[in-house]
Amino acid sequence: MDLVPALEEPLRQPLKSVLGPATAKVMAEHLGLRTVGDLLHHYPRRYEERGQLTHLADLPMDEHVTVVAQVADARLHTFASSKAPRGKGQRLEVTITDGSGRLQLVFFGNGVHKPHKELLPGTRAMFAGKVSVFNRRLQLAHPAYELLQGDSEETVETWAGALIPLYPATAKLESWKIGKAVQTVLPSAQDALDPLPPSLREGRGLVTLPEALLKIHRPHTKADIADARARLKWDEAFVLQVALARRRYADAQLPAAPRKPKPDGLLTAFDDRLPFTLTGGQQKVSREIFDDLATDHPMHRLLQGEVGSGKTLVALRAMLAVVDAGGQAAMLAPTEVLAQQHHRSVTEMMGELAEGGLLGGAEHATKVVLLTGSMGAAARRQALLDLVTGEAGIVIGTHALIEDKVQFHDLGLVVVDEQHRFGVEQRDALRGKGKQPPHLLVMTATPIPRTVAMTVFGDLETSVLDQLPAGRSPIATHVVPAADKPHFLARAWERVREEVGNGHQAYVVCPRIGDEEDDPKKAGGKKTPEDEAEKRPPLAVLDVADHLAKGPLQGLEVEVLHGRMHPDDKDAVMRRFAAGETDVLVATTVIEVGVNVPNATAMVIMDADRFGVSQLHQLRGRVGRGSAPGLCLLVTEMPEASAARQRLNAVASTLDGFELSRIDLEQRREGDVLGQAQSGARSSLRVLAVIEDEEVIAEARQEAAAIVAADPELQHLPGLRTALDALVDEEREQYLDKG
């Protein structure tokens, strides 16, 4: 939607800037706003009414906020400090209120004079700053402010109407300065090129794009804001869905070799040796996959399943079907630990069917090879040879599979595990290794609400496994409030001992490793009030393992596992744990996906509040994989009323990953969900909320599919084409990377 032609004028030019050069520079560097169009699409986060005040009671920590409030009182204190040893230091403390709560503002040194004169009790103003904590109270240190006299001409003109727009801002540029800049370029909104086809816009009763831009930046009533948002949500949903529909359309035009399994081949032999029957869900999903594999254009399917629902088995059967049809299958895993784990479990499940070319191999057997970056040269050479000759039907590996040196005899299927760790470019690089584009199956154990699947993975068809295999045990989850009730933590270690006493094993998960060098910036220098208020560093694997081995778990076999260990050491630790030689494994989140030790029944997650909801659900899925019930203890020092504790209570209250993913989404920003957070780029979604706007997204997807089917090149919709070029150009690296 950005950069529509008439709005492409840069905010900053050598000869003539639309805005002052300094403002334009800050906008480009800190907000990514470079053109008039960018600025017009930088929408207000919320609005203040002149007669009403913000809720100071729920300000977010560490964020730049803008509040409209009234000064309750102001006090000037003097104090002695290193800079002013004779008691000449000055500190101005101003308390502001909005009826819902109070907030402290502090100004120091020479910065006290102006606010001391201007911020008198009863004065109303807008204040902007970063929320921090000092002495357990929220404060803004040295906030910028703009008085609201209500009669000065400029204020009235800038804040036309009764609603004051508050913009996402930065420390360098306050909301009201952005507001003034927007008012400067607002006349250009008339030239905005509309991406929505007129029939769609009129059919849904949406206002035009120029009108929507005017109403969102200069609303006179709440109805104006609602009209504008309804329209702009459609723009975002529709342009995104058109981009995805065009990807699906382009993929459907590609040729692929149909892969149908032989009637009595490898797949049949494998199914015959399974010691259990497939669940109804596994059978249904397998049918969907086999139907796709039999077509002459590439399958693009997302397989999402609850932790432990047997996705690997479904993927393996698809790989065997392709090998039966004369092709090869590659499985891509995000970490070496996981690649080795998959290789072990696949060869175990296949038995002699994985011993192709070896004495004792079964009649239909194939070779299953592992390829990772840390393999020795000889093993690597042999693996590469097996792939290029076609000797190996199945290869399991990490990013090493994507390298140029890796050549396949006839690559028919690519299975990507834990999609959110791989970008589209990497998928495409692997797909480029087939004579024709291979079929693609993407797996994730992070349940994704339907709308997010449509928004983030909209170029893939979706299959869902939501049924756990028979014999899986329930997992009981409890929150352990270590600060409020220290005896609960002592009891947690007793529970671990009891599990080990019953012949089982346990995991202890920590947020960091513990061999990091201390940050010199943090170590030296004076501590600011913010530093003092900061929480202690997260617990570390090495410290916790040491403490447990010498203390609460003394006498048990305790080992550590983390990402910076040598791959051979990691593998050896996992093998000992899988063989039952280790009682307790203290690890980072390297065990988050795919690790399968059915005898491990207990997990203690330290500083559980430092992990996201989906991550906790993933981690918890490592226990209860055998016939004995699982136990997961979430240890936290966060107080009862905190948002972090509510998050942990939610995880403890349900084992339904889809329910948790909704909770997770409601608590995070859409940008994170769409993978923008990692790239630091602005999210392509500014007004669309993935969970709330389910209907808009579903309808936009239908409209987009119909439009692309009728006019794949969008010949008749120049406005839509322009918006699409802007979206895909700006976001090609980020949003298509499905973070």
Give a verbal description of the structure.
- Helix 8 (222-253) crosses helix 26 (694-710), helix 9 runs antiparallel to helix 11 and helix 10 (280-293) packs parallel to helix 11.
- By secondary structure, the chain is of the alpha/beta class.
- The two termini are 21 Å apart.
- Strand 11 (367-371), helix 13 and strand 12 (392-397) form a beta-alpha-beta unit.
- The longest helix is centred in the first third of the chain and has 32 residues, at 222-253.
- It is built from 27 helices and 21 strands.
- The protein has a 7-stranded parallel beta sheet with strand order 11-12-10-13-14-9-15, sandwiched between helices. A 6-stranded parallel beta sheet has the order 16-21-20-17-19-18, sandwiched between helices.
Give the topology, please.
Elements: H1 21-31, H2 36-40, E1 46-49, E2 64-79, E3 89-97, E4 102-108, H3 113-118, E5 124-134, E6 137-141, E7 144-147, H4 153-158, E8 163-166, H5 175-185, H6 198-203, H7 209-217, H8 222-253, H9 266-273, H10 280-293, E9 300-305, H11 311-324, E10 328-332, H12 336-350, E11 367-371, H13 377-389, E12 392-397, E13 411-417, H14 424-431, E14 439-444, H15 450-456, E15 461-465, E16 475-481, H16 486-501, E17 505-509, H17 520-523, H18 529-533, H19 541-550, E18 558-561, H20 567-578, E19 584-587, E20 600-605, H21 613-620, E21 630-636, H22 643-653, H23 657-667, H24 670-673, H25 676-679, H26 694-710, H27 718-731
Helix pairs in contact: 7-8, 8-26, 8-27, 9-11, 10-11, 15-26
Largest beta-sheet details: 7 strands, parallel
Give the neighbour order of strands across the main sheet. Answer: 11-12-10-13-14-9-15
Distance between the termini: 21 Å
Helix content: 25-40%
Give me the count of strands.
21
Q: How confident is the prediction overall: mean pLDDT?
A: 81
Rounded radius of gyration (Å): 29 Å
Uncertain runs with pLDDT below 50, 5 residues or more? Answer: 1-5, 152-161, 517-534, 669-683, 731-739
Per DSSP, the total helix count is 27
Taken as a percent bin, the fraction of beta residues is 15-25%
Overall body shape: globular
Kindly name the structural category. Answer: alpha/beta
